[in-house]
Each structure stands twice: as structure tokens, then as C-alpha cells.
Amino acid sequence: MTAMPIGDERMKTAVSRKPSRLFYRLSVPMLxxxxxxxxxxxxxxxYILIRVQNDHALKMxxxxxxxxxxxxxxxxxxxKNVSAFVLSNSFIDNLxxxxxxxDFEAIGDFFDLQTNxxxxxxxxxxxDFVPANIAxxxxxxxxxxxxxxxxxxxxxxEIFLGTGIxxxxxxxxxxxxxxxxxxxxGAVWWSQSNGANDMIYTASRKLGHKDGRMMGTxxxxxxxxxxxxxxxxxxxxxxxxLLLDDRNKVIYSDRYSFMEDLSGFDYIEKLQGTSGTVxxxxxxxxxxxxxxxxxxxxxxxxxxxxxxxxxxxxxxSAVGAAIGATALxxxxxxxxxxxxxxxxxxxxxxxxxHRREVLEFHEPLPTFASGIYEIDELNQKFASMLVMIRQxxxxxFNEEIxxxxxxxxxxxxxINPHFLYNTLDLINCRALISGDxxxxxxxxxxxxxxxxxxxxxxxxIPLQDEIRQVEAYLDIQKMMLDDLSVDIRLLDELxxxxxxxxxxQPLVKTALFTGLRIKPAAAESPSxxxxxxxxxxxxxxxxxxxxxxxx
Length: 551
Description:
Elements: H1 5-17, H2 21-88, H3 90-96, H4 107-121, E1 140-145, E2 164-167, H5 175-182, E3 187-193, E4 198-207, E5 214-223, H6 225-232, E6 240-244, E7 250-253, H7 266-269, E8 275-282, E9 285-293, E10 299-305, H8 306-309, H9 313-354, H10 356-359, H11 373-434, H12 437-454, E11 460-462, H13 463-480, E12 498-500, H14 505-516, E13 534-537, E14 540-543
Parallel strand pairs: 1-2
Antiparallel strand pairs: 1-5, 3-4, 4-5, 6-7, 6-10, 8-9, 9-10, 11-12, 13-14
């Protein structure tokens, strides 16, 4: 078969204008599946990226806090070590506990002690936490002597918390000194400004090694700018660090002033325990507060706004949505190409199947190469099926014509007997008018023979009808054979048995003419017939006796 250009072009136009239902049946579920998969994938990927980014921001804040905490702890630990060295050093203990006859004899020991204290203060130069634009300062090591010390008389009386030796009488009115008196075995920490710098201090009681009497107080001080240097090396993006003492006063902060009391703030009251993380509102913004405590009861707070942890959420979501939309566009285009490649050939085949010209066999089925084996095979098989159907239709049509022809011939054959019957009836009437009864009887018997013989073209008839046909035949034979006698016996239960038409007449004819050539019997025999001119069939018997045949 060859393709019809006009029909094929019309099919292409129809397919291109209106997508087939098959196209929607395939594309809509697959597109929905792809959309669901891409949406799930992009949502999961965006969620994972957001969690990773937020966790990274949280870990960076925690690492910054840990860095600051370790270095501030180092500052505090160094101050405690310096204080412990002064308290436990036997040379210093001998200097402050030496007995002199005259006060001026203690001047040498006073300067020796002063020199040792100055040397200890230089330990702060071993670290470099202070930024380069700030001059490094040493620890201040102060010893406030009690009257029980031999160096008390040569010590200055004014209060000066720098490196050196002073008398302790005027310090007893200080709040920190009162707390130290209550904690005889411990140390106290406090902060205060010395005019030029903001300082933090720790004080411990100095006891004599000999008799354990109170010799004085060792005071170690450090500049808060060293803490500023530590925090400067570990800043928090969008957040800040806050160092509070045990009474919630600010030791260091970029947001609050030195020694500002924060006890009334809500987020300070939420700080329970030695360490942890709380969420609170500061102003109109939500913050996450991470805190940890030192041995002296002071707390380091790292305060970060919640928006810092989710600052990339919108960007990641937007990028994920853009990637998902791009992937959806690409997959949709790819899916449409595949579905069109599969459905268009099928739609063309369906349209060709519905074309009237093809169904009426005026045009052959258009053929086209889709590049898909199954569709091309389907097209080829359908074209072959159309050819086979056409052949079967033509065969069936020819058979129907032949059947109609046979019916016509049968009708014609039925018309001729009617003419014959009418003719025989006419002869019968003329014979009766002329008084020839014998001719009338022969004509009526002949009409019955033809009537039962044709039997409206039926193949199977009841046995009693077959016998009537035989009786009509024998009536004519009786006219020709003077001595012919017939005995027909039929059982009632066999009257309606269906037999093949004209099955008995050949038997009767054979029995009749056979009997003419055999010597007639003297009498009828009740036994089954043999060659004595008798015939048996289906429960009835015919016995014939004749000597002559007249024509």
C-alpha cells in the first residue's frame, strides 16, 4: 500500500490542532508524578541546606564563645596563679614576717618585696591578647599589709591598687574586703575603675607560715582591655559577647557600659544553672543567648539574634524553587517530547481507522514511519487486517449472491410444479367431464406423487408422509399391474419419526420390479421378506404379486 498525501496531511493538521485523549492520559499522570518528585526533592534539599547552614552558624557562634571562654579563663587562672605564688612563696613570707628592732631596718626588705612584686606583674607580657594598637599593660600585684607585718610601718598609707605595698587599714571599709573577711579560706573577685582604666581584681588573705597570723592581703589586678583583645579575635557576626560578674554587673561589653547593672533584664533572669542556652527578646528582636560560668561565679554570655541563624533561609528557598522550576520545565519539555512521539503515531492510526474512505475501502490505510517498532508493527498489522477484512467481505458477498441465486432457482423450481399441478388439475377436470374416471384417478395419483416428491424442498420429513408418497406411487403402479397387491403396515409410535426424503421409494421400486421377475408366491408370508417380492423397512412391510405388466 502507498500513503495518500492528502489524507495524511489532514491527519497531521488534526493531531497538531487538538491533542488526543491518549496524550492527556499519559502526560497528566506522569507530569503530576514528576512535579511531586521535584517538589519533594527540592523541598528536602532546601530543608537540608537550611539546617546545615543554621547548624553551621550555631557552631560558629559556639566556637567563638568557647574561644573567648578559654582565653578569659586563662586570664583568670593566671591571676589566681600569681596570687597563689605570692601566698606560698617562702622568701616573700620571710620578708613580711621578719622582726626588726628599728623600723628603718625594714626598708631594704621593703624594696626587695617591691622588686619581687614588680617582677611578678611582668608575667602578663608573655601573652599577646591585646591588639597592636593598644599598649600592653602588666598585671598589678598589690600587697596590703596588716600591722602584724614587720614591713607595715614603712609601707604607704594611701590606697593605691597598683603594683606595690600599702597599708590595709583603709581597705577595710571596701565592700570587697568585707566579703573577703567572711570568706577566710577563699578569694574574692570584683571590678572597679582606677580612673584611667577599667580593672578586674582578685584578693586573697596572706597568713604567716610560722604562726598562721594574718599578715595582709594579696590583690591581683588586670586591665579589661586584655579581654577586649580576646573578644576581638573571635567576633560574632550580628551578635556580641557579654562578661558579667556574680552580681550581674557588666565587666565587658560593646553594648553596655562598665559596671552597668543588668539584674532587671528579663533575659538575665532566665539564666539558670552554670551553663546553657536560652531564647529571649531584647527590645523587639528575638535572640539566642549561650552562657557559661567561671569558677569565680562570673558568666560569659554570647548573644546572637535568631535572624542570624536563618539569614540564608529565604535565599536557599528561592534558589531551591528556581532550580525546581528549571528542572520542572526541562522534564516537562522532555516528557512532552516522549509522549508526543508515542501518542501522535497512535492518534494518526486512530484517525485513519475512523476515516470513511479507509473503512469503505476506497483508500488504503496511510503508512508512516514513527521510529517505534511496536507502533509501526501495529500499523502494518492493522493494514493487513483491513485487507483481510475486505477479502472476507467480498467472499461473504459472493456467497450471499450465490445463496440468493439458489433461492431464486428454488423459487423458480417451485413455480414450475405449480404450473404442473394446475395442468394436471385441468386434465383431471376434463377427464371427469368426459366421464373417464380411470384417467382422473391416474392424474390425481400422479399429482400426489409430484406433490409428495417435491415436499417444498425439505430434506427430512415424517415417516407417515414418506409412506403417503409411496402409496401415491403404488396407486399408479396398480394401474399398470393388474395383479399388484400392496400391504402397508406402520406402527403408531413410528409415524412421526424423521427420515430422509425419498428413502423408501427406491426400496419399493426395487422390491416391485424384482418381484416381477420372480415366480409369484401362493400366499403372503408373515415372515420377514426375502426375494419373494416383499420389502421391509422401519416397521412396515410391502408384499407384491404380479404376473404381467401392461402399459
